[in-house]
TrEMBL record:
<dbReference type="Pfam" id="PF08033">
    <property type="entry name" value="Sec23_BS"/>
</dbReference>
<dbReference type="InterPro" id="IPR036175">
    <property type="entry name" value="Sec23/24_helical_dom_sf"/>
</dbReference>
<dbReference type="InterPro" id="IPR036465">
    <property type="entry name" value="vWFA_dom_sf"/>
</dbReference>
<feature type="region of interest" description="Disordered">
    <location>
        <begin position="101"/>
        <end position="120"/>
    </location>
</feature>
<protein>
    <submittedName>
        <fullName>Protein transport protein Sec24b</fullName>
    </submittedName>
</protein>
<dbReference type="Pfam" id="PF04815">
    <property type="entry name" value="Sec23_helical"/>
</dbReference>
<dbReference type="InterPro" id="IPR006896">
    <property type="entry name" value="Sec23/24_trunk_dom"/>
</dbReference>
<dbReference type="InterPro" id="IPR006900">
    <property type="entry name" value="Sec23/24_helical_dom"/>
</dbReference>
<dbReference type="InterPro" id="IPR012990">
    <property type="entry name" value="Beta-sandwich_Sec23_24"/>
</dbReference>
<dbReference type="GO" id="GO:0030127">
    <property type="term" value="C:COPII vesicle coat"/>
</dbReference>
<feature type="domain" description="Sec23/Sec24 helical">
    <location>
        <begin position="295"/>
        <end position="337"/>
    </location>
</feature>
<dbReference type="InterPro" id="IPR041742">
    <property type="entry name" value="Sec24-like_trunk_dom"/>
</dbReference>
<feature type="domain" description="Sec23/Sec24 trunk">
    <location>
        <begin position="1"/>
        <end position="195"/>
    </location>
</feature>
<dbReference type="InterPro" id="IPR050550">
    <property type="entry name" value="SEC23_SEC24_subfamily"/>
</dbReference>
<feature type="domain" description="Sec23/Sec24 beta-sandwich">
    <location>
        <begin position="200"/>
        <end position="284"/>
    </location>
</feature>
<dbReference type="GO" id="GO:0006886">
    <property type="term" value="P:intracellular protein transport"/>
</dbReference>
<dbReference type="Pfam" id="PF04811">
    <property type="entry name" value="Sec23_trunk"/>
</dbReference>
Length: 338
């Protein structure tokens, strides 16, 4: 467990202690690990200490007047702690990081909200979080982000830490534990699912397809190693990926088009496993058959992903036009052929 404000606090949970010990590192510009063998512990051995810590945490900082947030240094410390083992980091963040590496400033101008200039805010303000995520991915560490903020939090910058380490992002805008019971309930449900769902570690995934088809442009949270190998530090049953497929050659001679996704991962019990999904679709010569078998939700999801990519790389109006054009193409070919 790490907590942080303008300093980073570690907790010694070594078996045999009567209560958790708090170790404070105030040098956030060059964060270091105060003790190497007692901060990452086996839950079975230290269960009582962990319970003690979780019970006392809510009151520990209730009188604090500290308003700063050194998220970057805390993440660097978590990376150093977990590098030897890999695993999963769960980050709970309530405001803009204001100190140390990765600190951010509010980029939002209330007068500019409806203008077309807002696009630069859709991209990250710093590459710190992306670089850190790539380091984490290399050590098989996934970072999951719970953003519980009541004001502007620059999700565009913070999201990079999960995007490139194959983590998940849970966002609760205008979160308040008293005034917004719906968001509180959502957090409780999400957190319960998050802590109880299955998890795979050190995963890689590759998607293959029939000759004549080619797969390009992947969407989701991962890092692409080589051209088509998705590196997933963590993978879970809720992970979702979208890919674009092009028809390169005529499929007239084949009756089936096949796709195969192979996922190699380590289970939570430490077993190395491979999970293979194969999908065979008939090749048809009537366009009406294609429309009859289309998966509306999958298409909508893919188009939304493509529009998001376009809005970040060029502009919102560009993405809007591209989305409208894609739908118009759908509908006009439906009208002409079906």
């Amino acid at each position: 467990f790490l907590t942080f404000d303008s300093t980073v606090h570690f907790y010694n949970l070594q078996e045999g202690l009567s209560q958790p010990q708090m170790l404070v590192v105030s040098d956030i510009d060059d964060v270091f690990i105060p003790s190497h063998d007692s901060l990452m512990v086996n839950l079975k051995e230290s269960r009582e200490l962990v319970k003690d810590l979780l019970t006392s945490l809510p009151a520990m900082f209730s009188q604090s007047r500290e308003t700063h947030s050194a998220l970057g240094p805390a993440l660097q410390a978590a990376f150093k702690l977990m590098s030897p083992t890999g695993g999963r980091v769960s980050v709970f963040q309530t405001q803009l990081p204001s100190l140390g590496a990765g600190k951010l400033q509010s980029r939002e101008d209330p007068n500019q909200r409806s203008s077309t200039k807002g696009v630069q805010h859709l991209g990250p303000a710093t590459d710190f979080y992306k670089k850190l995520a790539l380091d984490c991915s290399g050590q098989q560490i996934g970072v999951d982000l719970f953003l519980l903020s009541s004001q502007y939090a620059d999700l565009a910058s913070l999201a990079c830490v999960s995007k490139y380490s194959a983590g998940s992002i849970f966002y609760y805008p205008s979160f308040h534990h008293v005034h917004n019971p719906a968001q509180l309930q959502k957090l409780q449900k999400d957190l319960e699912r998050y802590l109880t769902r299955k998890i795979g570690f050190e995963a890689v995934m590759r998607i293959r397809c029939t000759k004549g088809l080619s797969i390009h442009t992947f969407h989701g949270n991962f890092f692409v190693r080589s051209t088509d190998l998705l590196s997933l530090a963590n993978v879970n049953p809720d992970s979702a990926f979208a890919v674009q497929v092009s028809i390169e050659d005529s499929l007239a001679d084949s009756s089936l088009a096949c796709f195969q996704a192979a996922l190699l991962y380590t289970s939570s019990k430490g077993k190395r496993r491979i999970r293979v999904h194969t999908l065979c679709l008939p090749v048809v010569n009537q366009l009406s058959d294609v429309y009859a078998g289309a998966d509306v939700q999958a298409i909508t999801c893919l188009l939304a992903n493509m529009a998001i990519d376009r809005s970040v790389s060029s502009s919102l109006s560009d993405a809007r036009d591209a989305l409208v054009n894609a739908v118009v193409d759908f509908v006009s070919s439906y009208k002409n052929n079906v």
